[in-house]
Amino acid sequence: MRTEKKLEELGQVMVNEIKKGDGPTFETTLRTRSNTIYDEAVGCLRTGDKKETRKFLSVAQARTFMQTVAIAAKTKQFLTEDLHTSIRGLFYQLKFTLGEDLDEDLFTEQTESNQLIEDLEVALKIKREDLNLTTDRKGFVAGAMAIRDKFGGEETTIDLAKQGRSGWSIPSDVDNGMEITSLDADYVLVVEKDALWQRLNEDKFWKKENCLLVTPKGQSTRGTRRLLRKLADKKLPVYCLMDCDAWGWYIYWTIKTGSMNLAYLGRDFAVPESRFLGVTMSDIKEFPFLEKLTIKAKDVDVKRAEEMMGYPWINRHKDWVRELKLVLKTKKKLEQDALQGERLTFVGEYIRKKIDNKEWLN
Amino acid sequence: MRTEKKLEELGQVMVNEIKKGDGPTFETTLRTRSNTIYDEAVGCLRTGDKKETRKFLSVAQARTFMQTVAIAAKTKQFLTEDLHTSIRGLFYQLKFTLGEDLDEDLFTEQTESNQLIEDLEVALKIKREDLNLTTDRKGFVAGAMAIRDKFGGEETTIDLAKQGRSGWSIPSDVDNGMEITSLDADYVLVVEKDALWQRLNEDKFWKKENCLLVTPKGQSTRGTRRLLRKLADKKLPVYCLMDCDAWGWYIYWTIKTGSMNLAYLGRDFAVPESRFLGVTMSDIKEFPFLEKLTIKAKDVDVKRAEEMMGYPWINRHKDWVRELKLVLKTKKKLEQDALQGERLTFVGEYIRKKIDNKEWLN
């Protein structure tokens, strides 16, 4: 069902409740930690089945209820107008309409505003991108892929093999009005840092290897996660090259299983098939020059490694446990940038060898 | 003179000093605050003429001296190999060579590593991009401009009018191997936030207005500043739309005059011709709906406004003083996103009106 239709039905149900003399209600799925489960069959985090019903005729819930309905009304309007805006743009639209009733702190992107939008996403089984809301974008792609992009009333086809040093910037929404029209790649390589992506792009690694070269540029945006899911759906293996530290592991596991706080997005934003190529502390055995390029692990790295050993979806993987224990034992970490220490072009050789020999962590 | 040649000469001078039985020295320009001046004739911050000579045969300077020479040697090698890397990549190359002598803390991008590279930039009158060092990239452009990009042994031409929702990502280096091959625009519009850039891109504002639509995505990277300088050199007016707050003002003044800590880059990275279109607290008079979309100024905004009134290159502009006083009086601020409060498409109308009526702050 189209998103506009879903929003209309949401309103219709409330109107009917009012007509019957009842107070309107809004049902959504609980996004609490206790209702977040690891779906073993699929291999990703998702919300469970516990529901929550909010009532307009409740002193505690009236204000939030009203705001949720206002967001539904505004985004319905954006869809009708065929215009997009950010959460901040939505905030000002609501502030214009609701005026003093709207507290700025309630609507800063990092805090409760997300909650209200997430309520709608979960209740209607849609993504915020389907509501014409744009989110932060960050990642890049290079490779033999073409994208047809319908946007602002125009259509353009972008050849991701001809973007020079810049690459193609992964937009906020890779579903609506966007289509992969051609794709010739054997696999997807995800490199944590833009700097290393640029290094590999300069070496034309994606051309030599017939792969798609992707960087989330740190933690993945929603757009990057969706794109990786779409590529995995096309049966491309997804290999990830991250730092061997708290942040690198987190970036990888967010791609693979999703993250706790965005678990409600489920498999649509997760790639359980993805594989961790490196870097790992074990790499030192094979490439001894890396030994003197390790650096001292920070407290956050040690703490994170300990935490990860407690997650059932991680500690079931013996290879991961072995690597995490190695970090805890040596109290050292290794950055992906270190692969350039001896020769700038070594990075590509390292990746090729890892893939050829199937040396990855699952 | 080419950068490689300059690096060679730097080494040759040192070799000659050693042959003469002297200890080698390295002369650079002082980048202290006391040697930072506002160049009134040009309209930007730059370093003065005070020099500093560092000696190898000095207990206090030997280590830094050695590292500076090591950086010169390594980057010379990058140029010979025709390969690029980041400062982090350079760090690992040095660590591989110098081993334990290299302290990680000395080389985190934010701290002293920059100092050593800046020494070289200033001493040789080059940019770090000329040393094949990549820096963080962030901004985007859309409009009737084509770029010829020679990179990684290949050449590609990118049409910035055909990049769909993504736009063209401004790379780290817009000089070496990069050329503007066609350009048909009446002016450049710089919009602080990517979200608003996307809004205007969706409205095809750049097409309707025949302008280049640029976002630095917050504070400008070096690449964005260089690109804006190059566009201003082509006699295009540069109009900026920022938040009316501490951060927005800082972003604008960095584009216009450069910033204190990067003053050594001088006019090559500054656009004294740029104009501040808005948003301003005065906008409320003309567009009363903005009144209820103002938000409380934070301490940092008030403090920054007070500081700016003390800068001679700012307080000479009566219009700026008037605006800053208005912020100090009302203790309110206004975000550019607020322009979308009444109608999403109002942003474009606002910009057109401001430019048509020459309503900008200089």
Descriptive overview:
2 copies of one chain form a homodimer. The first copy, chain A, has 2 domains: 3-134, Orthogonal Bundle (Arc Repressor Mutant, subunit A); 140-356, Dna Topoisomerase Vi A Subunit, Chain: A, domain 2. The first copy, chain A, has helices at residues 3-19, 62-81, 87-98, 112-124, 194-202, 205-209, 222-233, 246-257, 283-286, 299-308, 312-315, 318-330, 346-356, and strands at residues 25-29, 36-39, 44-47, 51-55, 85-86, 133-134, 140-142, 145-151, 154-159, 168-169, 178-183, 187-191, 211-215, 238-241, 275-278, 295-296, 332-333. Chain A is built from 13 helices and 17 strands. With 362 residues, chain A is of the alpha/beta class. In chain A, α10 runs antiparallel to α12 (318-330). In chain A, strands 10-7-13-12-14-15 form a 6-stranded mixed β-sheet, sandwiched between helices. In chain A, strands 9-8-11 form a 3-stranded antiparallel β-sheet, with no helix packed on it. The longest helix of chain A has 20 residues, at 62-81. The model of chain A has no long low-confidence stretch (mean pLDDT 94). The first copy, chain A, is globular. At the A-B interface, β5, α3, β8, β9 and β10 of A face β5, α3, β8, β9 and β10 of B.
Going by CATH, the architecture of the largest domain in chain A would be: 3-Layer(aba) Sandwich
What is the fold named in CATH at topology level of the largest domain in chain A?
Dna Topoisomerase Vi A Subunit, Chain: A, domain 2
Q: Which two chains touch over the largest interface?
A: A-B, 65 and 63 residues
Q: Would you identify the regions of chain A where 5 or more consecutive residues have pLDDT less than 50?
A: none
The outline of chain A comes out as: globular
Q: Give the count of structural domains of chain A.
A: 2
Number of strands of chain A: 17
